[in-house]
Amino acid sequence: MKKYQIEIEKDENGMYIGEVIWLPACYTQASSIPELLNRLVEVSEGSLELLRELSSQKTTFKVSLNVEYAKA
Fold first, then answer.
1. pTM of the full predicted structure?
2. Hey, which residues does 6 pair with through a beta bridge?
3. What CA–CA distance (Å, rounded) separates 47 from 55?
4. How far apart are the first and last CA of the chain?
């Protein structure tokens, strides 16, 4: 299973912004971390589906996010 790194920031309005590194156009925002993680899984699946369609290989992708964070 391929693992992807994510980055999460909190903006000045209190929204969490997340990005899955190395996946094109794979970012989203939400008002809570659990909601953000759910949305990141959705956009990850969409991004991986697009990559699969663009490739000539028949590949199956499964999305799994491992989250580690430190409080500032």
1. 0.69
2. 20
3. 12
4. 31
